[in-house]
Amino acid sequence: MTSPSDTTTRPRIRLKPKANARALRHGFPWVYSNELVTDRRTRKLAPGTLAVLEDEAMRPLGLVAVNPDSKIIARMLDRDPDAEICQSWFAQRITHALELREQLYDAPFYRLIHAEADGLPGVIIDRFGDTCVVQPNAAWADTHVEALAAALAEVTGCSNILKNASGRTRGLEGLDDQNAVLCGEAPSAPLPVVMNGATYMADLTGGQKTGLFFDQRENHGVAARLVKPGAKVLDVFSHVGGFGLAMLAGGAEAATCVDGSAAALELAKAGAEASGKQDLLTTRQGDAFDVLAALAEEGETFDVVICDPPAFAPSKPALEAGLRAYERVAKLAAPLVAPGGYLGLCSCSHAAELTKFRNSSARGIGRAGRRGQLLHTGYAGPDHPQMPQLAESGYLKAVFFRLD
After folding, report:
1. Residues 379-389 pLDDT 10s
2. Which residues pair with 233 in a beta bridge?
3. Among 171, 218, 141, 232, which Cα is nearest to 376's?
4. Does domain 12-78 have CATH number 3.20.20.10?
5. Known catalytic residue: 348?
6. pTM for the full model?
7. Which of 132, 158, 346, 348 is an active site residue?
């Protein structure tokens, strides 16, 4: 009987002759289903199975995780086809990632693992002090989640490790949506997180994604620097007040946060109170497009307006509709910006690459009868490193305009 760690009995899968083996050798991490020889044996492999990937000449390319039910049928885990995926393997990769974050940040609040870019395909880990939230968004990671959690506790010393199973990606992998506590216990209340001089309240069990969006940290800072003393600002699609609270910390006199979620706006209020800015924050619940139109009818203007919507173009088939939605956001938001004020527009759609998103934003501003100078283009912070071979890892874009 072979050991579960025996690497000699692993199945072997092979690329089709026209598949781009060179890209894989140069670091591209995925094999699509139309690039692989999918015979009956391959189709019967359980999602998450470890296998040796070969080129058409049967030369090994590395160790991959296979999911016959996914469009991404194989994910590269290690260039060594004999690598053992165990606690020590996870610990090495987490240690490498942690060294970067500890160099970048004074406090343990950051994205610790950014999937492929940190060598753990499909895995997201956000750290909130003594608690880590893990999103195993690929079948192989779900299969090895106990070893992953053990390594995470070993390397970071965190007492509490939570599994967040929400999100579209797990559904594409055929995975369930059941959250779990992998180690320790879940916090009984939202946790305070200080960034850019503001305090945010992160709900790790009932909030969106892992509880807070660390990716916008750098862009929050840019928005705060655009604020003049006494400024009036608007944060649309605000979630827990990301831009609004940062701009209050930057000296704004009044901030309005708009979101469809009442729970998120309550967290924004709690963050304002924790920041000592509760008297300066107003919230408005409702559909963002409707609220933008209503504010224009009311004759409201703001010194800084930021719009950070959800992914309108989560995939290539949704791209054109998504670009029209980004254009509409810009068209509705631009009239609310006072002359000489600033408009920040964001996209977290990896399918909408920067040029197309920027052009859609500029068209919307023009259709609103405004002209703008493009001041700054922002991306996710350095705790969200990009994998150069994988465009999807650089999903976040933010463009800041000064309007006439």
Report:
1. 999 999 999 99
2. 255, 304
3. 218
4. no
5. yes
6. 0.94
7. 348
